[in-house]
UniProtKB/TrEMBL annotation, chain A:
Bilayer topology term: Multi-pass membrane protein
Protein name, entry field: Branched-chain amino acid ABC transporter permease LivH
TM segment ranges: 6-32, 44-64, 70-89, 101-120, 150-172, 201-222, 279-297
Keyword Membrane set for record: yes
Keyword Chloroplast: no
CDD domains in alphabetical order: TM_PBP1_LivH_like
Keywords (A to Z) from UniProt: Amino-acid transport, Cell inner membrane, Cell membrane, Membrane, Transmembrane, Transmembrane helix, Transport
UniProt family annotation: Belongs to the binding-protein-dependent transport system permease family. LivHM subfamily.
InterPro entries, per database record: ABC_transp_permease (IPR001851), BCAA_transport_permease (IPR052157)
Annotated localization: Cell membrane
Organism: Shinella curvata
TrEMBL record, chain B:
Organism: Shinella curvata
InterPro entries: Leu-bd, Leu_Ile_Val-bd, Peripla_BP_I
SUPFAM superfamilies: Periplasmic binding protein-like I
Ranges for domain Leucine-binding protein: 27-349
Domain of life: Bacteria
Keywords: Amino-acid transport, Signal, Transport
The family this protein is said to belong to: Belongs to the leucine-binding protein family.
Taxonomic placement: Bacteria, Pseudomonadati, Pseudomonadota, Alphaproteobacteria, Hyphomicrobiales
Protein name: Branched-chain amino acid ABC transporter substrate-binding protein
Keyword Transport in record: yes
Signal peptide: 1-24
Length: 305, 371
């Protein structure tokens, strides 16, 4: 077996998995706090890809040539605008339904998902759009014929994701907002009694979720270079799977689940069959859920009667 | 006073409701079915724009035998189940007299069963899977080429013109893509060449790096891809990024300008070839049609011209008679001088002697005919 091919597949899997993990964070945080699956999350990611491309076009128009500066400003602007989407969606579609049955916000989420897709399709057209390659080139290991490579862009993805996850972990574990988030996650009513503004915390969670999805959106847009209004669907399903695999509600679980899913897909596609990689990944998920119904790092919910 | 005006308004609305069917009976309805939402919405829009431009011209010139033509849109999103629902609606509710569509082969095949039962003329502007016309339906015509015609040409092109013998076959598990790849595989095997890889990717994904690494590990020197641009573009780009030295050959779905963006720029398209009909946009005889389209505010793209040409054929057939037998017989016996050239049909409903040529790309990403 060619060891470089194996190393290459590991790189492929880890990069893909990191992106799954970034998007999965949004699912897992929202679920942790209000026990609801935000089906519009994949489409928030899709919107962020468009915002990233538009921001880049505007920056280029104003003659900004420096790649690191462009990348960072696109990242910041996209995160800000996408976070605004996250906030608005929660405000419009979920908050009014908070007291009603569990199914109502779920349906409303699917509605938002369809609305975002149709809106982008009408506003931006159904065609595939693309951004030019910003960072090209790769680190190569091995000789001229047999080699494994990790592109500079993939390196950026890994580092940017690590930094984003680092900031997020710090915010959740060491700040006031994070403490309040954890409190609301444990018990929303008691937190409210103790003076936590739960509405504001839930908004914050949506904002954080949308912003991490935007980090994913920017990285994916610059790495794969093309997108359309429909990319949120498959990515949403994969990221949701990653969140469940890692244990929905658990932040490190989302990242772990993402990387595992990415690696499984890459290795199965590389050594067995691309046709059946999804079948295999989901079969693995089902088997795992038999033994750990709450995912790898999830904690069981104890229903007190 | 307000009571009276309300009553008047209500009466007006009610009477307009009563009048609507009476007007409708004086028009000829043509259903245009295709994906207007979903990942392939761009193609559905192109076909519809072509059809509606021609139908507007027909209506301005007095319609079909004095009757105005009315178009009914049916959105199947390229999903077989939705296509059947659209077909039932066309037949039962809208009572269309002909259908242009569907777009994807996977939608055309189930939907055509319903049109066949109802005896309605159908012409597809884009479904190239052989099964479409191989079932012997007398009402179904194809306004485009066939995958196996295309595949024979493609296999010969890879083996003889490009002289590549280690071919990786990649498809998107859809009727069009897999049909194309299966036909190429069959043609190659008949010539004693086994593919080094035969795999299907998942539609909607963007990351094919694992597959690309696998292609590299097989030592392939050519890739034949059956599928559409949303997956094909990133695949081309990732092959380049990983430095896999192959020629990339694919089918007519790549004949779209958005490919350049999806593949990450013209530099990545250096070794990409696609088979297609001789570009109707480059054919000087279609200049009149293109001008008419531009005048109507429609950008002449590939499937716009197919939509236009199919509308020409269907309208001509509808002029020949009100019964399906007369319409079908007319199409089999006559030549239509259409936006994609002169076309005639064989007994099956396929276009006779449909030609395929190959295109490559220049430095700016513009398709160039391969001589």
């Amino acid at each position: 077996m060619d060891v470089y091919i194996l190393i290459q597949q590991l790189f492929n899997g880890i990069t893909l998995g990191t992106i799954y993990g970034l998007i999965a964070v949004g699912y897992t945080m929202v679920y942790g706090v209000i026990r609801m699956i935000n089906f519009a999350h994949g489409d928030v990611y899709m919107v962020s890809a468009y915002i990233a491309a538009i921001t880049l076009a505007v920056l280029t128009f104003f003659g900004i040539q420096s790649v690191p500066f462009a990348l960072i400003s696109v990242l910041v602007i996209t995160c800000a605008i996408t976070a605004l989407y996250g906030w608005a969606i929660e405000r419009v579609a979920y908050r009014p339904l908070r007291g009603s049955t569990k199914l109502a916000p779920l349906i409303s989420a699917i509605g938002i998902s369809l609305m975002l897709q149709s809106y982008v399709q009408i506003a931006q057209g159904a065609r595939d759009q693309g951004v030019p390659t910003l960072i090209s080139g790769a680190f190569r290991f091995g000789d001229g014929v047999h080699f494994a490579q990790i592109t500079y862009m993939q390196t950026v993805i890994l580092f940017a994701s690590l930094i984003a996850m680092g900031i997020l972990t710090y915010v959740i574990n060491h700040t006031r907002i994070g403490r309040e988030c954890r409190a609301v996650q444990q018990n929303i009513r008691i937190s409210a009694v103790l003076g936590v503004n739960t509405d504001r915390i839930i908004s914050t969670v949506f904002v954080i979720g949308a912003a991490t999805a935007a980090v994913g959106g920017v990285l994916v847009t610059f790495n794969y270079g093309s997108f359309n209004f429909f990319i949120g669907f498959v990515m949403g399903i994969k990221a949701f799977t990653a969140a469940v695999l890692g244990g929905i509600g658990s932040l490190p679980g989302a990242v772990l689940g993402g990387v595992l899913l990415g690696l499984t897909e890459a290795l199965f596609a590389g050594y067995v069959s691309t046709d059946y990689k999804d079948v295999f990944a989901f079969a693995l998920l089902i088997i795992l859920l038999f033994f750990r119904p709450y995912g790898l790092l999830g904690r069981p919910e104890i229903q007190k009667v | 006073m307000t009571q009276i005006s309300k009553f008047l308004a209500a009466t007006a609305i009610a009477s307009s409701l009563l009048l609507a069917p009476a007007f409708a009976a004086d028009t000829i309805k043509i259903g245009v079915a295709g994906p207007y939402t979903g990942a392939n919405a761009t193609f559905g829009e192109q076909v519809y724009n072509g059809v509606s431009t021609y139908v507007n011209e027909v209506n301005a010139a007095g319609g079909i035998n004095g009757k105005q033509v009315e178009l009914v849109k049916g959105d199947d999103a390229c999903e077989p189940k939705q296509a059947v629902a659209v077909a039932n609606r066309f037949v039962d509710q809208d009572k269309v007299q002909a259908v242009i569509g569907h777009f994807c082969s996977s939608s055309t095949i189930p939907a055509s069963e319903i049109y066949n039962d109802a005896g309605i003329l159908e012409m597809t502007p884009s479904s190239t899977n052989p099964t479409v016309t191989d079932r012997g339906f007398d009402n179904l015509f194809r306004g485009c080429g066939r995958d196996d015609q295309q595949a024979v040409v493609a296999a010969g092109f890879i083996l003889d013109t490009l002289k590549r013998d280690k071919v990786a076959l990649i498809h998107d598990k859809d009727t069009y893509g897999q049909g194309l790849v299966d036909a190429v595989k069959k043609t190659m095997e008949e010539r004693g060449v086994q593919p080094v890889l035969y795999e299907g990717l998942t539609r909607g994904e963007r990351d094919f790096n694992a597959l690309v690494t696998k292609i590299k590990s097989t030592g392939a020197n050519a890739v034949y891809f059956g599928g559409l641009i949303p997956e094909g573009g990133p695949l081309v780009r990732q092959l380049k990024e990983q430095g896999v030295d192959v020629v990339f050959v694919t089918g007519d779905a790549f004949a779209q300008t958005e490919l350049v963006a999806a593949a990450g720029g013209p530099a990545n398209l250096k070794d990409v070839y696609y088979s297609a009909t001789p570009d109707p946009l480059a054919d000087p005889s279609t200049k009149g049609v293109q001008d008419a389209l531009t005048k109507a505010g429609v950008t002449p793209a590939n499937y716009v011209l197919y939509g236009y040409a199919n509308a020409q054929a269907v309208v001509a057939a509808l002029k020949a008679g009100e019964e399906l037998d007369a319409q079908a017989a007319w199409l089999r016996a006559n030549t239509v001088d259409s936006a994609i050239g002169k076309i005639t049909w064989d007994e099956k409903g396929d276009i006779k002697d449909f030609k395929f040529v190959f295109y490559n790309f220049d430095d700016k990403g513009t398709p160039v005919l391969v001589k």
